[in-house]
Design a protein that fits this description.
three-stranded antiparallel beta sheet, mainly alpha, 118 residues
């Protein structure tokens, strides 16, 4: 990931409403959520939600697909991984104790455990 793409992703997430939507979609998993369900879960009005989803989509953090009359949104986990990797790329500078707390966070996350079911 280059710096321009990272800035786009970080800018998209630098808004409480968009961050809330993105985190909801991350939790929803590969099945994703219909826009109406996202609106109900977050309390966002349709116009605001649509704008937020468009911004997240342009940043590559959210994808959409049509299922019947619904549009289903999903988090783009590969893009999220790329963004996190970009942020961590130069973390340690030869001092692994700097990143050790982050490794502990991942190790403790229930969703990241082998065989975890969401």
């Amino acid at each position: 990931m280059d710096a321009t793409a990272a800035v786009s992703g970080l800018s998209a997430l630098a808004h409480s409403g968009r961050l809330e939507v993105f985190r909801l979609l991350v939790r929803a998993g590969a099945e994703g959520m219909a826009s109406g369900d996202i609106a109900r879960a977050t309390g966002h009005v349709p116009q605001t939600l649509s704008g937020n989803l468009n911004i997240l989509g342009h940043a590559g953090l959210v994808a959409s697909r049509r299922e019947g009359r619904s549009i289903i949104y999903t988090a783009d986990y590969a893009r999220m991984t790329d963004l996190l990797g970009f942020l961590m790329e130069d973390c340690c500078c030869g001092a692994p104790e700097i990143c050790a707390p982050l490794a502990e966070v991942v190790a403790k996350a229930a969703c990241c455990q082998p065989g975890a079911v969401q």
